[in-house]
Amino acid sequence: MALAGITFLLGACSGGAEPASGNESASTPSKGGQEAVQDDESQKDVVKVAVGSADHTTLVAALKQAELVTALANAGPFTVFAPTNDAFGKVDKATLDALMTDEKKADLQNILQYHVTTSALKTEWLRDGQSLGMVNGDNLKISIKNGKIWLNDAAQIIATVPASNGIVHVIDGVLLPPAK
Amino acid sequence: MSHKLLTLLALFAAGTVALTGCKPKNAGNAVSGNAAEKAYVAPGEYDEYYNFVSGGFSGQMAVYGLPSGRLLRVIPVFSVDPEKGYGYSEETKAMLNTSHGFVPWDDLHHPEMSQTNGEIDGRWVFGNANNTPRVARIDLTTFRTAEIIELPNSGGNHSSPFATENTEYVVAGTRFSVPSVGSGGDVPINTYKQNFKGYISFISVGQEGEMDIAFQLECPGVNFDLARAGKDKSHGWFFFSCYNTEQANTLLEVNASQRDKDFIMAVNWKKAEEYIKQGLGKKVPAKYAHNKYDENSHTATSEIKNEVLILDTKELKDICYFIPCPKSPHGCDVDPTGNYIVGSGKLAAIIPVFSFDKLQQAIANKDFDGEYEGIPVVKYESALHGEVQKPGLGPLHTEFDANGNAYTSFFVSSEVVKWNVQSLQVLDRVPTYYSVGHLCVPGGNTRKPSGKYVIAYNKITKDRYLPTGPELTQSAQIYDISGDKMQLILDFPTIGEPHYAQAAPAELIRERSKKFYKIEENSHPQVAKGEAEAKVVREGNEVHVYMTSIRSHFSPDNIEGVKMGDVVYFHVTNLEQDWDVPHGFAVKGAQNAELLIMPGETQTLKWVPDRVGVFPMYCTDFCSALHQEMQGYIRVSPAGSNVPLTFSLGTNTGDPATGQ
Question: Which of B92, B157, B164, B235 can bridge B133 by disulfide, Cβ–Cβ 3.0-4.6 Å?
Answer without folding.
Answer: B157
